[in-house]
Amino acid sequence: HLAEKHHARVPGLLDRLLQLSPDQVPFDHSDTLRLLGVDEEPHFTRLRQELRALFFSSEYLDRDVPHPGARAFVEDCRGAGAIVVYLTGRDHGGMHAGTVASLIAHAFPLDQPDVHLLMKPDQATRDLEFKSSTCQQLRGYGELVAFFDNEPENVNSFKEAFPSCIAVLVTTKHSKNPPPPAPGVERVANFLRPAC
C-alpha cells in the first residue's frame, strides 16, 4: 500500500519491500524504513507516520498469521477447564473489528463464556500500563495459571504480580532494548506439541 503510493517519490521502495519476508521486517517502523533504504527527509517522517497509522488500524489485520499450534493450544486449555483471556496491546477503537475478524478467520474461540478479549481503551496507553491495569479483572476470572507475551517487560510484570503463574516469553519480535526476562520466565517459539 505505502510502497505503491510513494513509488514515484521513493524509487525502488516497492521492489525492496517485495524481497522481504515477514520475518525480516523489524518490529520498529523506523528500522523497517531504514532497511528499505528510506532515511532522508521528508520521506522518512511522512512514511513513518503513515505506516504507524496503518499499523494501528484494522486495515491489514486480515494478514495476521497465528503462531504455529496456537489455536490447538487454546482449545486444549479450554478443554482442560481454563478460562482464556486474549490480553492484547491493540486498541479497541482502531483495531477491535480487525482483531475479532482475524480470531474468527483462524478459528480461535471467541464469544464464549470462558473466553474474553481485553483490548487497550486507546492507542496512547502504553501496553505495560494497560496490561498491568487488568490484574484485578484477571483475578476475578480465577487463578492465573499462565501468561504469554512477546514483550519481556510485560512477562516480567506479570511474573511479579502473579508469582505462581507460568510466565512465558514468546520469542518473536519485541520492542527495542527490552529488559532481560526475570528469573523463572519460560520461553517458547511456538505452540506446537513436542514430538513423542
Task: Explain this structure.
Helix content is 40%, strand content 13%. Strands 3-4-5 form a three-stranded parallel sheet, covered by helices on one side. It has a two-stranded parallel ribbon with strand order 1-2. It folds into two domains: 2-55, no CATH class; 66-188, Rossmann fold (3-Layer(aba) Sandwich). The protein has helices at residues 2-5, 13-18, 29-35, 43-55, 70-79, 92-105, 127-133, 135-141, 152-161; strands spanning 84-91, 115-120, 146-149, 166-170, 186-188. The model has no long low-confidence stretch (mean pLDDT 87).
Features:
three-stranded parallel sheet, 40% helix, Rossmann fold, 2 domains, alpha/beta, 196 residues, 5 strands, single chain, two-stranded parallel ribbon
The CATH superfamily of the largest domain is HAD superfamily/HAD-like
The general outline is globular
CATH architecture of the largest domain: 3-Layer(aba) Sandwich
Q: How many H/I helices?
A: 9
Strand content is 5-15%
CATH class of the largest domain reads Alpha Beta
Terminal CA distance reads 44 Å
Number of domains: 2
Topology pattern, helix = H, strand = E: HHHHHEHEHHEHEE
